[in-house]
Design brief:
Blueprint (H helix, E strand, L loop, with lengths): L5 H4 L2 H12 L3 H14 L1 H5 L4 H7 L8 H15 L5 H14 L19 H5 L7 H21 L1 H11 L4 H17 L1 H5 L3 H9 L1 H16 L6 H17 L1
Length: 243
């Protein structure tokens, strides 16, 4: 079960690396960052607006743990989109960590034998007879839709235009539905996950757009296509209208 636990998995070495990249060779800046860490905690240091660029550009950034990079990039992208919930950022970063491992994106749990390759297959399995697996499928539907539409929007859009495949709106609707169903499941209440899944469903578009920006800037920065431009213009227009 994927949980919002990336921050609690960060090590002392992660905090030390953050101090070094923010210090950037300046004793004064290092002392300032260390003061923030001491007085306000690691969360405040991870929220420093200079950190994403510093991790990306500094030589020491190559030594950063996957968890630190994932959380920082997601957290700052979400803040830029107006979303301040650290738990949501933590959860989305956790999705990236888990789904980046082998074929985990296709499995509802690490040890599950069945591999899902489409949202339609997941939707068809949300009401299975096994209550626990039904819960996992519902959560996975939201996670998988966010993973694909968030990090690979150009792939989704290209397939839409060339093959008539589902578009980003379809992924949003399916992902939102998955999180809503997960939130409504009895196990979500007993495990304290209902508020998280409700928030993820309600704010799915914000999560997707934030991940798109991470993907555009860091994963595929040199990719340019009409589909990407149209997506960016459409999302910017929608964001201005909602805001």
């Amino acid at each position: 079960m994927i949980r919002a636990n990336v921050r609690q998995m960060l090590q002392r070495s992660d905090a030390q690396l953050v101090l070094r990249v923010l210090g950037a060779g300046s004793a004064l800046e290092y002392d300032r960052a260390e003061s923030v860490l001491r007085e306000r905690g690691l969360d405040a240091l991870l929220d420093d607006p200079r950190l994403p660029v510093a991790l990306h550009d500094a030589r020491q950034g190559a030594c950063a743990s996957y968890g630190l990079v994932a959380y920082v990039m997601v957290r700052h992208a979400l803040r830029a989109a107006g979303e301040e919930d650290r738990v949501l950022a933590d959860y989305v970063a956790s999705i990236l960590l888990h789904f980046g491992l082998r074929d985990r994106a296709g499995r509802v749990a690490a040890a599950d034998d069945e591999i899902f390759t489409t949202l339609a297959d997941l939707l068809g399995a949300v009401d299975g007879p096994d209550a626990r697996r039904s819960f996992l499928v519902r959560a996975h539907l939201g996670n998988y839709a966010l993973w694909v539409s968030g990090l690979f929007p150009d792939y989704v859009e290209a397939r839409r235009w060339r093959r008539g495949a589902p578009d980003l709106d379809y992924f949003e609707a399916a992902g939102r539905r998955g999180f809503e169903l997960a939130a409504a499941h009895e196990l979500a209440s007993t495990q304290g996950l209902a508020p998280l899944f409700s928030a993820a469903g309600e704010r799915f578009r914000t999560l997707r757009v934030a991940l798109n920006r991470v993907s555009d800037a860091y994963l595929f920065p040199n990719h340019h296509s009409p589909e990407r431009l149209m997506r960016q213009v459409r999302d910017d227009a929608r964001w201005r209208f909602v805001s």
